[in-house]
Write a structure and sequence with these properties.
Helices cover 74% and strands 0% of the residues. It is mostly helical and 372 residues long. α2 (53-68) runs antiparallel to α7, α4 crosses α5 (136-156) and α5 packs across α11 (258-273). The chain has one domain.
């Protein structure tokens, strides 16, 4: 166990260093070759920013994970790495030359199928909807759907500085810690390797121009794939219930990935009600709402970090509760957080309106004095 924990530590440090040292070279290439994410009417940045950070993330965690994972893990490893390579090059192609949305979705389903084929599948519902052990067909189907949904959820929250990387890092640390507790060391190494790269990436994502870089689809898709793999492995391990006294691992997992999945569901419903396709891009994401309340990118991201941590802590400390009890508790926490966030936005807009009215009155008074 001591050697395993050392492997996790070295994997985390090495992935951090490789990404930290690689990104400056990626920035140099991006500026020399003029490879940028160009701002438009929908994007929030106003300058041309390189969006190749996913390259640093990919190679940072890939090398660390490959080197420090155990040899007996190769049977699963080859499926995981194949799926990562597919999504990485698909994301990189989309960052450089936009791809057809249907082709992207098809490749995501293919990558998810490979993961499920490698044995990373949801095997039980733990009594949810009266279901326990799942047959092979249903296990494959629900696992593939889960992977695609979570992958896209992380892809969609990558809209402001630090949000996808920060939420992804928190998720990896939480899931990695849980996997260590149930002795799933190789998957824990995957989690901490990705977490290490994300910490390094955040240093450049929050940086000022010209050191600033975005992760692009090549990075955000890998984050979603990682989160889905770790979630499925944790849910499927019998030790999650026996060793950690978790009555419903599915609800704990839902709490960990709540922010990106909630935003995906919320945005899709809003678009459908507005008569649009759920795949139509707009500015209705939760991070856009926070920006409209007066927060800058960094503060909006940190606000959602805190919300994510509250969900995780709540789910872990009440892990011995039944599915319904824990679900209702998380729902209450979610409602409180949403009310606080949108209440803050309301008060901010009220203060803006009040300041505007005072300014108009002041200008009218000045105009009256000048005329007389």
């Amino acid at each position: 166990m001591e050697i395993s924990l050392l492997n996790i530590l070295w994997a985390t440090l090495s992935s951090f260093l490789m990404t930290y040292l690689t990104i400056p070279y990626i920035l140099d290439v991006a500026y020399k070759k003029n490879i940028f994410d160009v701002p438009d009417e929908r994007k929030l940045h106003t300058r041309q920013i390189p969006s190749l950070g996913g390259i640093g993330i990919f190679f940072g965690f890939l090398i660390s994970f490959t080197f420090f994972t155990s040899a007996d893990f190769f049977g699963v490893y080859k499926y995981i790495i194949t799926a990562y390579v597919i999504l990485f090059f698909m994301g990189l192609k989309d960052d450089l030359v936009p791809m057809n949305a249907k082709v992207k979705l098809l490749l995501q389903f293919f990558a998810a199928f490979i993961i499920a084929l490698g044995g990373v599948r949801i095997s039980s519902f733990y009594g949810l909807f009266g279901l326990y052990e799942l047959n092979t067909f249903f296990s494959f189907s629900i696992s593939i759907l889960f992977i695609v949904v979570v992958t896209n959820a992380f892809n969609l929250i990558d809209g402001i500085d630090g949000l996808a990387a920060g939420i992804g890092g928190i998720n990896c640390l939480a899931l990695g810690g849980l996997l260590v507790m149930i002795d799933e060391i190789n998957f824990a190494i995957l989690a901490f390797s990705v977490a290490g790269t994300l910490v390094a990436f955040l240093r450049y994502n929050f940086a000022a121009y010209p050191q600033k870089i975005f992760m692009g689809d090549a990075g955000s898709l890998l984050l979603g794939l990682t989160a889905s793999i770790l979630c499925i492995r944790f849910m499927s391990s019998p030790a999650a219930s026996s060793s950690l006294s978790i009555v419903s691992p599915m609800v704990v997992v839902a709490a960990i990935i709540f922010i990106p999945v909630f935003d995906l569901v919320r945005v899709s419903i809003l678009r459908i009600f507005r008569g649009k396709s759920p795949f139509t891009p707009d500015n209705s994401h939760i991070h856009h709402e926070l920006l409209s309340s007066g927060l800058n990118h960094k503060n909006a991201s940190i606000t959602l970090y805190v919300a994510n941590i509250l969900f995780i802590v709540t789910a872990f400390f009440f892990r011995d509760q039944s599915f319904l009890q824990l679900f209702l508790l998380l729902l209450v926490v979610g409602v409180i957080i949403v009310q606080v966030l949108f209440g803050w936005r309301y008060l901010y807009r009220r203060s803006q309106l009040y300041d505007l009215k005072n300014r108009i009155k002041h200008l009218e008074k000045e105009n009256y004095l000048i005329e007389n």
